[in-house]
Design a protein that fits this description.
Layout lengths: L8 H16 L5 H8 L3 H7 L3 H20 L9 H16 L8 H9 L5 H23 L5 H20 L9 H13 L3
Protein backbone atom coordinates (compact mmCIF):
# COMPACT_ATOMS: atom_id res chain seq x y z
CA UNK A 1 0.00 0.00 0.00
CA UNK A 2 1.15 3.55 -0.68
CA UNK A 3 2.13 5.66 2.26
CA UNK A 4 -0.88 7.49 3.65
CA UNK A 5 0.54 10.94 2.88
CA UNK A 6 0.47 10.09 -0.84
CA UNK A 7 -3.13 8.84 -0.80
CA UNK A 8 -5.98 11.07 -1.85
CA UNK A 9 -8.31 12.32 0.91
CA UNK A 10 -10.98 9.91 -0.36
CA UNK A 11 -8.59 6.94 -0.13
CA UNK A 12 -7.44 8.04 3.32
CA UNK A 13 -11.09 8.05 4.42
CA UNK A 14 -11.63 4.57 2.98
CA UNK A 15 -8.50 3.27 4.72
CA UNK A 16 -9.54 4.86 8.01
CA UNK A 17 -13.02 3.36 7.69
CA UNK A 18 -11.51 -0.06 7.03
CA UNK A 19 -9.11 0.09 9.99
CA UNK A 20 -11.42 1.65 12.56
CA UNK A 21 -14.58 -0.23 11.68
CA UNK A 22 -12.67 -3.52 11.80
CA UNK A 23 -11.00 -2.70 15.11
CA UNK A 24 -13.81 -0.80 16.85
CA UNK A 25 -16.97 -1.82 14.98
CA UNK A 26 -19.19 -0.07 12.48
CA UNK A 27 -20.53 2.34 15.08
CA UNK A 28 -17.25 4.30 15.00
CA UNK A 29 -18.06 7.99 14.73
CA UNK A 30 -17.57 10.28 11.78
CA UNK A 31 -15.31 12.54 13.84
CA UNK A 32 -12.97 9.65 14.64
CA UNK A 33 -12.92 8.54 11.00
CA UNK A 34 -12.15 12.03 9.75
CA UNK A 35 -9.48 12.58 12.42
CA UNK A 36 -7.81 9.25 11.55
CA UNK A 37 -7.86 10.15 7.83
CA UNK A 38 -6.75 13.75 8.40
CA UNK A 39 -9.79 14.96 6.46
CA UNK A 40 -12.49 17.43 7.49
CA UNK A 41 -16.12 16.35 7.86
CA UNK A 42 -17.01 18.79 5.11
CA UNK A 43 -14.55 17.07 2.78
CA UNK A 44 -15.89 13.67 3.76
CA UNK A 45 -19.36 14.70 2.67
CA UNK A 46 -17.95 15.88 -0.66
CA UNK A 47 -16.81 12.31 -1.32
CA UNK A 48 -19.62 10.33 0.30
CA UNK A 49 -23.32 10.97 0.88
CA UNK A 50 -23.09 9.43 4.34
CA UNK A 51 -20.98 7.40 6.71
CA UNK A 52 -22.99 4.37 5.56
CA UNK A 53 -21.92 4.99 1.95
CA UNK A 54 -18.30 5.41 3.04
CA UNK A 55 -18.41 2.15 5.02
CA UNK A 56 -19.88 0.29 2.03
CA UNK A 57 -17.22 1.75 -0.29
CA UNK A 58 -14.52 0.77 2.19
CA UNK A 59 -15.76 -2.81 2.30
CA UNK A 60 -16.01 -2.93 -1.49
CA UNK A 61 -12.45 -1.64 -1.84
CA UNK A 62 -11.16 -4.47 0.39
CA UNK A 63 -12.83 -7.28 -1.59
CA UNK A 64 -9.88 -7.94 -3.96
CA UNK A 65 -7.46 -8.25 -1.02
CA UNK A 66 -9.86 -10.50 0.86
CA UNK A 67 -10.31 -12.72 -2.20
CA UNK A 68 -6.54 -12.85 -2.77
CA UNK A 69 -5.96 -13.94 0.84
CA UNK A 70 -8.29 -16.91 0.40
CA UNK A 71 -7.24 -17.91 -3.12
CA UNK A 72 -4.91 -20.87 -3.53
CA UNK A 73 -1.50 -19.72 -4.81
CA UNK A 74 -1.59 -22.31 -7.62
CA UNK A 75 -5.27 -22.99 -8.31
CA UNK A 76 -4.65 -24.84 -11.58
CA UNK A 77 -2.53 -27.56 -10.02
CA UNK A 78 -4.51 -27.81 -6.77
CA UNK A 79 -7.43 -30.17 -6.39
CA UNK A 80 -10.83 -28.85 -5.30
CA UNK A 81 -10.18 -30.35 -1.86
CA UNK A 82 -6.80 -28.58 -1.62
CA UNK A 83 -8.37 -25.27 -2.66
CA UNK A 84 -11.05 -25.57 0.04
CA UNK A 85 -8.54 -26.60 2.71
CA UNK A 86 -6.32 -23.68 1.71
CA UNK A 87 -9.12 -21.25 2.64
CA UNK A 88 -9.28 -22.71 6.14
CA UNK A 89 -5.51 -22.82 6.49
CA UNK A 90 -5.42 -19.11 5.69
CA UNK A 91 -8.14 -18.50 8.27
CA UNK A 92 -6.13 -20.39 10.89
CA UNK A 93 -2.96 -18.43 10.13
CA UNK A 94 -4.76 -15.08 10.16
CA UNK A 95 -6.54 -15.89 13.41
CA UNK A 96 -3.36 -15.92 15.50
CA UNK A 97 -2.56 -12.29 14.73
CA UNK A 98 -3.04 -9.98 17.70
CA UNK A 99 -5.16 -7.66 15.59
CA UNK A 100 -7.44 -10.39 14.20
CA UNK A 101 -11.10 -9.63 14.89
CA UNK A 102 -12.75 -12.18 12.62
CA UNK A 103 -14.12 -11.91 9.12
CA UNK A 104 -14.80 -8.22 8.46
CA UNK A 105 -17.79 -9.03 6.26
CA UNK A 106 -19.42 -11.29 8.82
CA UNK A 107 -18.80 -8.67 11.50
CA UNK A 108 -20.66 -6.05 9.45
CA UNK A 109 -23.63 -8.36 8.94
CA UNK A 110 -23.80 -9.19 12.63
CA UNK A 111 -23.33 -5.61 13.83
CA UNK A 112 -25.72 -3.89 11.46
CA UNK A 113 -28.58 -6.40 11.46
CA UNK A 114 -30.11 -4.38 8.63
CA UNK A 115 -30.12 -6.25 5.31
CA UNK A 116 -30.82 -3.02 3.40
CA UNK A 117 -27.82 -1.10 4.80
CA UNK A 118 -25.35 -0.43 1.94
CA UNK A 119 -22.51 -2.10 3.88
CA UNK A 120 -24.71 -5.14 4.60
CA UNK A 121 -25.38 -5.50 0.89
CA UNK A 122 -21.64 -5.52 0.11
CA UNK A 123 -20.91 -7.93 2.97
CA UNK A 124 -23.72 -10.30 2.04
CA UNK A 125 -22.52 -10.37 -1.58
CA UNK A 126 -19.01 -11.33 -0.44
CA UNK A 127 -20.34 -14.08 1.83
CA UNK A 128 -22.64 -15.40 -0.91
CA UNK A 129 -19.71 -15.48 -3.31
CA UNK A 130 -17.67 -17.50 -0.79
CA UNK A 131 -20.56 -19.97 -0.49
CA UNK A 132 -20.76 -20.22 -4.28
CA UNK A 133 -17.01 -20.84 -4.48
CA UNK A 134 -17.36 -23.65 -1.94
CA UNK A 135 -20.33 -25.08 -3.86
CA UNK A 136 -18.42 -25.05 -7.15
CA UNK A 137 -15.38 -26.70 -5.54
CA UNK A 138 -17.61 -29.31 -3.91
CA UNK A 139 -19.19 -30.06 -7.27
CA UNK A 140 -15.80 -30.32 -9.00
CA UNK A 141 -14.59 -32.56 -6.18
CA UNK A 142 -17.49 -34.97 -6.54
CA UNK A 143 -19.32 -34.22 -3.29
CA UNK A 144 -22.65 -36.01 -3.03
CA UNK A 145 -24.54 -32.82 -2.15
CA UNK A 146 -22.46 -29.77 -3.16
CA UNK A 147 -25.07 -27.28 -1.92
CA UNK A 148 -25.23 -28.82 1.56
CA UNK A 149 -21.45 -29.07 1.79
CA UNK A 150 -21.08 -25.41 0.76
CA UNK A 151 -23.49 -24.35 3.50
CA UNK A 152 -21.59 -26.45 6.04
CA UNK A 153 -18.25 -24.97 4.96
CA UNK A 154 -19.55 -21.40 5.28
CA UNK A 155 -20.92 -22.28 8.71
CA UNK A 156 -17.52 -23.58 9.82
CA UNK A 157 -15.72 -20.60 8.26
CA UNK A 158 -17.99 -18.03 9.87
CA UNK A 159 -18.16 -19.83 13.21
CA UNK A 160 -14.41 -20.33 13.43
CA UNK A 161 -13.78 -16.76 12.31
CA UNK A 162 -16.22 -15.30 14.84
CA UNK A 163 -14.96 -17.41 17.74
CA UNK A 164 -11.31 -16.68 16.97
CA UNK A 165 -12.09 -13.00 16.41
CA UNK A 166 -13.81 -12.83 19.80
CA UNK A 167 -10.81 -14.50 21.43
CA UNK A 168 -12.79 -17.50 22.70
CA UNK A 169 -11.19 -20.06 20.39
CA UNK A 170 -7.70 -20.64 19.10
CA UNK A 171 -7.31 -22.03 15.61
CA UNK A 172 -3.54 -22.52 15.62
CA UNK A 173 -3.99 -26.23 16.34
CA UNK A 174 -5.66 -26.82 12.97
CA UNK A 175 -9.17 -27.13 14.41
CA UNK A 176 -10.85 -25.57 11.36
CA UNK A 177 -8.99 -27.69 8.79
CA UNK A 178 -9.58 -30.85 10.85
CA UNK A 179 -13.30 -30.06 10.99
CA UNK A 180 -13.44 -29.31 7.29
CA UNK A 181 -11.48 -32.47 6.44
CA UNK A 182 -14.13 -34.50 8.29
CA UNK A 183 -16.89 -32.73 6.33
CA UNK A 184 -15.12 -33.28 2.99
CA UNK A 185 -14.60 -36.97 3.79
CA UNK A 186 -18.23 -37.41 4.85
CA UNK A 187 -19.40 -35.70 1.66
CA UNK A 188 -17.26 -37.98 -0.52
CA UNK A 189 -15.21 -35.10 -1.87
CA UNK A 190 -11.91 -35.94 -3.51
Amino acid sequence: MASTDKLSPRDRLLDAAARLSYRDGVSVGIEALCREAGVSKRSMYQFFDSKDAMLAASLEQRVPGYDAQLAHPDPRSASPRERVLHVFGRLERASVSADYHGCPYLAVLVELKNPEHPASIVARTVKERLAETFRAEAERGGARDPELLARQLVLVFDGASARAGAGVERLDDGLATKTVTALLDAAGME
